[in-house]
Amino acid sequence: MSRSEPTVRDVAERAGVSSATVSRVMNDAPNVDKQLARRVREAVKATGYVPNAAGRSLRARSSSQIAVLIPDADNPYFSQVVSEVEPAARSAGYSVMLCHTGNEPDQEQTYLDQIVARRMAGVIAIPSDESWSGLTPLTEANIPVVLVDRRLPDVEVDRIATDNMDAGRQAAVHLRDKGFRRPACITGPETLTTTEDRLLGFSHAWSTSAGGAPALYRGDLHFDSGFTAMTEILDDGDIDCVFVTNNRMSAGAFQAIRGLPNPPALLATDDDIWTRLVTPSVSVIQQPIRDTGRLAAQMLIDRIAAPNEMPRTTLLSSKVIERESTAGGPPSRG
Amino acid sequence: MSRSEPTVRDVAERAGVSSATVSRVMNDAPNVDKQLARRVREAVKATGYVPNAAGRSLRARSSSQIAVLIPDADNPYFSQVVSEVEPAARSAGYSVMLCHTGNEPDQEQTYLDQIVARRMAGVIAIPSDESWSGLTPLTEANIPVVLVDRRLPDVEVDRIATDNMDAGRQAAVHLRDKGFRRPACITGPETLTTTEDRLLGFSHAWSTSAGGAPALYRGDLHFDSGFTAMTEILDDGDIDCVFVTNNRMSAGAFQAIRGLPNPPALLATDDDIWTRLVTPSVSVIQQPIRDTGRLAAQMLIDRIAAPNEMPRTTLLSSKVIERESTAGGPPSRG
DNA sequence: CCCCCGGAAGTAAACGATTTCTCCCACCAG
DNA sequence: CTGGTGGGAGAAATCGTTTACTTCCGGGGG
């Protein structure tokens, strides 16, 4: 029923050559007779030979897989990054192992062990927080790492991210230009550099250009905390515009003002599909997610080729997309 | 600088035992002296030994990875399936390789080669259409496959999917019970079993219970074609309710009626975030996506353990979630 | 004419973990 | 006292590929 898979020796025998020659043909080595090469290729076809990746990887002491470590595959930001990394990696001859840590340390540890055990060619990681300890085992095993989106203190490693400070600045400029005067910011925990940088950029730009500081509401990045924060803002009164620094809290915040007659202006983060469908449509800071994924893969591939060069950081800029939720200016003069 | 990784022999030497014993300890084999086992474990810690997956996989003639083949990681349906498969697989000791075919045959072929080359333990596949040829190389290599969501003709293989005919029937019942009388259906190409089954269930239930056939509009599953179809429906007039059979066309269809005073009722597919945020909120057929992913993984793991049993098909039922877009009944009698 | 060089192909030794086979020993029953 | 039994551990073969080393050519220069 199930014969065992053909090996390089079976092919060699059928082509009347040695296994070394077969290997040379498979790897396009120079100095192989055209005639023989053709015979080998025919034998490969005839036997249906597919090189065993384990054997190859054992001999080569590395594999042609890269790992992508993400906290949560459901979040469209992460899944878009993944779907851009994948084709870029494949066209360079790598395949992608998806590691979905769910923000849980033991799950992450399992994957880190796997990555080392498989001698993966490299890792693209979105760490869960700034105390991320996963980097050490990887660097010790000489596995190149590219960080996406989040910054770690005291480490020298390749990184690609949105210029979050600048994104916050753009948000402030947009809201001020539209005539709003009493801003609030719904943001994440202080330990998360992504949202914290956006807050810092926003606050700094606001205080230097308009004066004063935005009211501050912190959530846990999820939908519900965005809803709760916006509800508090409505209760507190006196706020005429709200900047939300991540995608899910943006949706939650919108839910809280849905259908209200005179809601505060809303500037959300990430251009998800819902922002165009709701009424009023929602202005957003659009991050260059697709570029991020593509360039992360490129960066990793470059790093694998040149392990000893200096680490780089690439920052990509975002832009404001204006829609109805900030178009109107403040509701009234008072 | 970079010493080479410790091997089983290094550990053996340090613990004063043979490599065989180390292997036995690592794999929890019975009949190992407690004392020795402890010494081995200490040596493992001290050396930082991590078993080389390639060596193990070569000897075992199989790997502990499963592959998930999806057409498009961006689609929330697929990414949710993946994010459920992953933890279920991991807790059974498998890791997940993500294969993102982008509906392109050559990309898919690359991955199929990889899957065979790596002797993967199994594959969860969402084929792009009913002429999917990827199954053959896998079954020839004795790699178990579980199909998700889509049906293939003439193959006997494990499958898990939503009961799409029943979903269509539920849609018809809901719209008829709400008092609508002139339905349209926006659906996908005839070759896609998923959307076709929903259409069939819808049409059949409608004709037997209310009489007549729904007006038919076909799209290519993407946002724009949903928008176009709904625009045509509005032009054609005479339609009082619309059932859309996939998630992205649902969003496009909503876009076309956004803000209109008396739009036809809309019943969408998949409970995406936007359906609750828009005005009017949108009634949906909710598929059990999370169960689908979890059970697909379970099914594959069972199959790996028992390769020779008969293939099974599991159908999961969906349910209608009623919101504002179908709540009102038909706009007027005249 | 001889030597050396270089291209082409084969031989065999790695890579690292597992596992069969074998050996040793202690213990127990006859 | 002896033969059998079974647990515990080591030696060595094995998985399939790649590659350093060898071998065998033929040809060109001294």
Report what the structure shows.
- The structure is a homodimer of 334-residue chains.
- Chain A is α/β, with parallel strands linked by helices and 334 residues long.
- Among the domains of chain A are: 1-55, lambda repressor-like DNA-binding domains (434 Repressor (Amino-terminal Domain), Orthogonal Bundle), CATH 1.10.260.40; 164-287 and 319-327, 3-Layer(aba) Sandwich (Rossmann fold).
- Chain A contains 13 helices and 12 strands.
- Chain A has helices at 8-15, 19-26, 34-47, 53-60, 76-91, 105-117, 135-140, 164-177, 193-209, 223-236, 247-257, 274-277, 289-305, and strands at residues 65-70, 95-100, 122-125, 145-148, 158-162, 183-187, 215-218, 241-244, 265-269, 283-286, 313-316, 319-321.
- In chain A, strand 9 (265-269), helix 12 (274-277) and strand 10 form a beta-alpha-beta unit.
- In chain A, helix 8 packs parallel to helix 9.
- The longest helix of chain A has 17 residues, at 193-209.
- Chains A and B meet through helix 4, helix 5, strand 2, helix 6 and helix 11 of A and helix 4, helix 5, strand 2, helix 6 and helix 11 of B.
- The structure holds a DNA duplex (30 and 30 nucleotides).
- Chains A, B: GO terms for molecular function: DNA-binding transcription factor activity; transcription cis-regulatory region binding.
- Chains A, B: It comes from Rothia koreensis.
- Chains A, B: Residues 6-60 form the HTH lacI-type domain.
- Chains A, B: InterPro entries: HTH_LacI, Lambda_DNA-bd_dom_sf, Peripla_BP/Lac1_sug-bd_dom, Peripla_BP_I.
